[in-house]
Amino acid sequence: MSGRINVVLAAVLVLCALSLVNAQYQSRRLFIELERAQASARQLDIEWAQLQLDQSTLGKHARIEAVARNDLGMVALTPARTQYLTRDAK
User: Fold this and answer.
1) Residue 36, exposed/middle/buried by CB under 10 A (0-12, 13-18, 19+)?
2) For the segment 35-90, what is each residue's pLDDT rounded down to a tens digit?
3) Alpha-carbon span 52 to 45, nearest angstrom
4) What DSSP character marks residue 76?
5) In the chain, where are the structural domains located?
6) Structure pTM?
7) In this structure, is the dihedral angle defined by the CA atoms of residues 73, 77, 82 and 86, taken in order, positive or negative?
8) Neighbours of 68 (CB within 10 A)
């Protein structure tokens, strides 16, 4: 009877040990996945900050005016070049 109990206890001990090894493996795997996700989040934060900087730079009035003048050939509107349209009264 005592030998049977020892075998059962040994089997339970082996199962507990295997369960512990599996839990540690899963824990390491999840930790590595967490580290990768945090690194990806940091990279996305850096890219977001760069995009915000680019947006503020590209949206400045002086830059928009320079692009309009140089690239599109636009000039400022003067009263001499202004045409007014009126509706003919019937």
Assistant:
1) exposed
2) 999 999 999 999 999 999 988 888 788 888 888 888 888 888 888 888 888 887 66
3) 11
4) -
5) 2-81
6) 0.57
7) positive
8) 13
